[in-house]
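Treating backbone geometry as a discrete language has practical consequences that deserve illustration. The sequence in question and its structure tokens are set out directly beneath this paragraph.
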Amino acid sequence: MKRSKRYAEMMKKFDRSKSYKVDEALKLLKEVSTAKFNQTVNLTIKLGVDPKKSEQAVRGLLMLPHGIGKTRVVAVVTKGDKLKEAKESGADLSGYTELIEDIGSSKAKFDVLIATPDVMKDLGKLAKMLGPKGLMPNPKAGTVTFELAEAIKRIKAGEMSFRNNDSGIINFNVGKLSFDETKLKENIDTAIDTIIKAKPVSAKGQYLKGIILASTMGPGIKIVLPKN
């Protein structure tokens, strides 16, 4: 693929074969990320797990100390009295049959979907659509619950769920490029530490295989792997 001159100039500023400490990588990232908008900072972690084995799935909840610089749109599928609770608790979208139809037609736009247990049977028909996008509500992620007020509050405060994909990789949004380096480093350290603590008992050998830091329009920078 043909690269732009801007991209070629960025690549001259660091050694792609070298791994950098987090603070060094952040300085480089700010230097090479020259696009004229506030880019998202992404952390990609390659794990030494077998994605085909359910007992080696790495999943959980993460609360970054400084958030991600974005208020996420929360949709809630529920019915009855819980609809009022969802609206009063700050849900951006809420409803039952009509909302499920809007989700199915891609009319409803949101970042996180919460559902009460009594509607999961109806929402289940969208599993093949929502699952690959990481949007299907799940009890382990705290997004299938009757405690809507608590769940909405946690998510609005920045709590995120994570799970490795079919290649054993987890991607994190760890903030915006406009964040100062100290805040970004604390977010990154928290994300990496959370993944280390989530290591499955059955996972053998090297657990963290690679960590890449990148901005939306910038190249990936390798991070020195912590002992694991």
In short: The mean pLDDT is 90. The longest strand covers residues 40-47. Residues 66 and 92 are 22 Å apart (CA to CA).
